What does this fold into?
Amino acid sequence: MDKKFLIPAINERLEKIEALIKSLQDEKNELLKFLSDSNTAPTIPSLASKEQIINEYDASISWWEKTKYILKTSNMPMSTSEVVDYVMSKESNLDREKVVRLISHALTSNVDKGRTRRIGKGREQKFELI
It folds into this structure.
């Protein structure tokens, strides 16, 4: 990890997310190797099924990469709405609702069974790891 944060819980969560991403990438690579070896490749009804399996891995890896990015962004001293605006300015291909879900997921996911609490109300609501 290139940047250490002041809150140890965020460091721990980011390290666990990075380990999860690496694990998913390793599993995907092993699966690709297994599927490409004609001696060990299982009989899958269609190539679309193989591609679908790989696409599931890619989607999961992408989701966790975005979660990691948003968690790092969320560690900045900004309100939730400011984080959403910041992410929207950087990631124009995401809609606002998806960004809000990703932020919520980043702060409350079960990666390390951490907990968060909300500070403030409405647009000025902030999250703090406890």
User: Anything to note?
Assistant: The mean pLDDT is 67.
